[in-house]
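Hi there,

I know you've been waiting on this one. I reran it after we fixed the sequence typo, so this is the corrected version. Both the input and the resulting structure follow.
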Amino acid sequence: MRTKIIFGVLILTVGVLLGMQLESALTDDTREALKKLENAFLVISQRYVEEVDSGVLAEHALEGMLEELDPHSVYIDAETMRRVEEDFSGGFEGIGISFEFVEGVEGQDTLAVLSVIPGGPSEEVGLHAGDRIVEVDRQSTIGYKTEDVQRTLKGPRGTSVDIVVIRPGYANPINFTIVRDRIPLYAVDVAYMIDEITGFIKVNRFSGTTHREFKSAVERLKSQGMQRLMLDLRGNSGGYMEMAVQLSDEFLPEDALIVSQKGRIRDANRPFVGTSEGLLENEPIIVLVNESSASASEIVSGALQDHDRGLIVGRRTFGKGLVQQQYLLPDKSALRVTIARYYTPSGRLIQTPYENGDREDYYISKRELQTNSALLSAQEIIESIPDSLHYKTEGGRTVIGGGGILPDFIVDVDSASMFLREVFSRDLANTYARMWYDREGASLTATWRDRRDDFFDSFEVEEIEFQRFLEYARVRGIRFGTEADAFSEEEVEADRSYLKARIKARLAVRLYDLEAFYPIMHPEDHTLQEALKLWPEAEKLAEK
């Protein structure tokens, strides 16, 4: 059974496959095997009872070869490769919106603007959050899927697209002609001050712009009085190794080992060390991680943990210690082939064990490892691990290898109640915020648009609005009352604070931008709130 590969967990390096360069290194046995493969391909493509698609046959052959290796050596088709390059190049060409799908008539989704990217072409022509895009170049968008949006709204810089929108509160459709431009994809989701001395930065990927964005965020927060930093790498599935090294270098002294890699070929063996003075070599640091923090995120977490430079808090990380090199093929597809293993400064290999390319068992074993890790303290887990996987940090603390970075302090996930699960599964908080903005967007914008901080501090979802939300939830199929399959008043009350914050945060995204979500939800973020109690421990590390 083939499983989906999460390409974001791969550490990316760039290479070009030039056949003559590789062919010169072939042994006689390899030449014979290659000839055998070629003959089999020709027999099937020319003699099989039905005509076959040679391109599809070749792709399946590539996938079959890679399945015998490791779970992170993969083939990427040309279309997927194009999207991956956009993600890690730091931008794409399009009209500059975040979008969502709104349920329309007869189950057909309607395309809606979630937010408008500041400075982009959509903002320039006057597109608003909440606008429903009903036509693109005279074609209806009813029933659009994500791939349709990418196909019609993305395009070469300088080209134009005509759209028609319906704006809540306006009687007539509005026509726009938007000239596409370069739209940045940011690696830093948000950077702001939690309190007078505590900065918070969330990095979502290690793309080509990550280090530059991170430095800019640090400098801005330092100008606002930041004396300690909370770095959020939860959900960050990795990216370029170079970016992980450069970001780690901002915390570590010159010549400090950050990571090393070891492989079969000469070029795959090398250490990466710190350079000149970094921006954050003395400040207390807390790094938040979870089971989706992988590869480049683990390089940063491992370097800071092994040098006793930062406190790692959250849940055991993904456990990817393999380095891939990317080889481009003539049709712009690519092979990503593991060429090395990487090791943290203490010598740890944090790769989760695997059996060849059996990806299904690999991901199952990861889930089991992470589930078991959530039941014990970090010290209990260390004591249960064989001594052969014990390593020492620079300051003498015991850390472990073999299956991710184990946090210094484990914070188990704050499981959602059955009521919240129902709300989430139906996307009710988000859709209610959209309805609210549709209903009162003009008034909300007039009152709060230029008062962002005031909105964060003083805006409240009043009780009458919360009751409207519950009525909306009732209409959408959630039952309240004393029946066996209904949610009680006590259950609703237990989640009232969280739901009010969630609705407010979703409203803020429409009023401002995607960054506005985080400061509002942080008081409800269990891991972050637990981490805030651990600054004395982080400060002890910073003093060493």
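Quick highlight: Confidence is low (pLDDT under 50) at residues 1-20.

Best,
R. S.
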